[in-house]
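subagent[fold] <- orchestrator: predict structure for attached chain, return tokens only, no commentary.
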Amino acid sequence: MRPLALLPRPGHLRRSVVVVAGVLTGGVFGLAWWVDRFGRREQTGPADALVVLGARVLPGGVPSGALVARVEQAAALYHRGVAPWLLLSGGVGVHPPSEARVMLDLMVRAGVPAEACVLEEQSHSTDDNARFSGRVLRERGARRVVVVSDPYHLLRARQCFRREGWEVATSPAPIAGRMRAWDRCYWTVREAFALLLRPGLLLARAPDGKAA
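subagent[fold] -> orchestrator:
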């Protein structure tokens, strides 16, 4: 049994807890600020392909608002000539069909030729998006991609694709009118937690070693 004199004093323990909590809180909100700031920037430039990350499909195969917004943003970039083809990435979630297949239908309605779209229907996470999309991109000789997703998702998405060896630019889908400020705050902080739990992901760099 340890002597009482060697036991941590309650005051010291409380201070330690406060310090640790402060560091964690500062880390989360510091990352949240970075996530938000990064997601507001349009970084589009000429690319080999546009990669559109999937979002929830509702019952009956109805696209969610996020899915529609991502497709509309990517279709606009395609029509501007940013890239010659699009990779639609997303598997089957709670409700079929796959996110990629629902996006294809939306793309065609937006005037994008079906033959300009390639489907990746295995993904169920951002890590999957990067890994499975990478196989298709390599087969088609792509090197630089523009990833399209919601603003709060883009920093983690870019890091996942960088880790797979891609030169990545990002383009945020508009969220005005479909997401309340409180919801955006929630998802931004959630992304910050996801990054804080995976610090190695933040170290991923572009193929030339530069950090944006």
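orchestrator: received. Logging for downstream: The first strand starts at residue 49 and ends at 53. The CA atoms of residues 103 and 109 lie 10 Å apart.
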